[in-house]
Amino acid sequence: MSRDPLVMALEGEEGAPVWARAFAWWLAPAGGLYRAGMALRRRLYEGGVLASRGVPVPVLSVGNLTLGGTGKTPAAAWLVSRLLEAGRRPALVSRGYRGGSPGVTVVGDGKGTALPSPPAGDEAAMLARRFPRVPVLTGAVRADAAERAAREFGADVIVLDDGFQHLALRRDWDLVLVRGERPWGNGRVFPAGALREPLSALRRAGAVLLTGNVAPETRSQVAAIARGVPLFTARMVPEELLDGEGRPAEGLGALRGRRAVAVSGIARPEGFMAILAGLGAEVAEHHAYPDHAAYGAADAARLTESLRRTGADFLLTTEKDAVKLAPLVRGAPLRALRVGFEIGGADALARLVREAASGGRALP
């Protein structure tokens, strides 16, 4: 499946059709209204007209300024891993895809039991499977989920996914991700562009993480906007090859020269394909679905037929997609690629994370 033309226009991609770019331009007045509404909303929270709830433990958020993929889920996993290494008891909290349930859903109980996807969102289900001893909770009211994680599951720090614009829950520290190339899309605010907020919002960040191939102009622009905010870089790297149940399979070297049918339902499938190419995998076909695709029986039949027709060794997908695909393609060889972040200045960023989780106290 090809990229949505309107998404390409919002992202500022050169290949976007003229009609899509024109439609995005036509939406500029709506973008101005959205921008004004976001500014008013922030002033209402800052003035106490709208309440921002706190919870009994520190809240560290991972977020961004734009729609689409910047790597928030790998960043959240990196934070959780560093907190576990520091002896903390983190919990992961998110809204859940498409708003989550009206109440709080315990996707992972921190004792090894996790919900499948569906009914849980794919990212939450993936993280619960990746961190079986870390509580993972979702809900439309994230303050309720965070409070329950602290009181019922004993978490002493919350990692809030996609929380930079979520003002209803008081945060102690924000890690803001920015794409290294075309970081602001077409430069307009939603719905005319990919920006959720004006660029000045970067000044609220506790740290900024530039992801992917970082253009020099991106680094200098972010540094000029967010003066004094610590700036780091990250690139996506393959970590492990898993089977359909999330267990370690062959080593990454096993992909070299192997023939695979690739499947992805992520915001930026080109990054997934670049990693597969770097590992030497021979991709017979690539089935690219929209982000958070809801796979069904027809998709499973299409993929298994592709596997048969091409003579490929296995279906090869992302860790996020595997939690949804595995129950549908039982009997077919399925492999999932786990990826993570390699961070420039990782020790310094980990120190900031530990300090924020300790209530902002400077650590030796």
Structural features:
11 helices; 364 residues; Rossmann fold; single chain; twelve-stranded mixed β-sheet
Short description:
The chain is an alpha/beta fold. The protein is built from 11 helices and 12 strands.
> What structural class should be given to the helix and strand makeup?
alpha/beta
Please tell me what the overall shape is. Answer: globular
Q: Uncertain spans, ≥5 residues at pLDDT below 50?
A: none
Number of helices: 11
Topology, number of strands: 12
What is the name of the CATH topology of the largest domain? Rossmann fold
How would you describe the overall organization of this protein?
With 364 residues, the chain is α/β, with parallel strands linked by helices. The chain has 2 domains: 59-235 and 342-357, P-loop containing nucleotide triphosphate hydrolases (Rossmann fold, 3-Layer(aba) Sandwich); 236-340, Rossmann fold (3-Layer(aba) Sandwich). It has helices spanning 5-10, 18-26, 28-46, 72-85, 122-130, 142-153, 216-225, 269-278, 297-310, 319-325, 346-357; strands spanning 59-64, 90-94, 105-109, 135-138, 157-161, 173-179, 207-211, 231-243, 259-264, 282-288, 314-318, 334-344. Strand 9 (259-264), helix 8 and strand 10 form a beta-alpha-beta unit. The chain starts with a helix and ends in a 7-residue tail after the last helix. The mean pLDDT is 92.
SSE topology:
Layout: H1 5-10, H2 18-26, H3 28-46, E1 59-64, H4 72-85, E2 90-94, E3 105-109, H5 122-130, E4 135-138, H6 142-153, E5 157-161, E6 173-179, E7 207-211, H7 216-225, E8 231-243, E9 259-264, H8 269-278, E10 282-288, H9 297-310, E11 314-318, H10 319-325, E12 334-344, H11 346-357
Parallel strand pairs: 1-5, 1-6, 2-4, 2-5, 6-7, 7-8, 9-10, 9-11, 11-12
Antiparallel strand pairs: 3-4, 8-12
Helix pairs in contact: 5-10
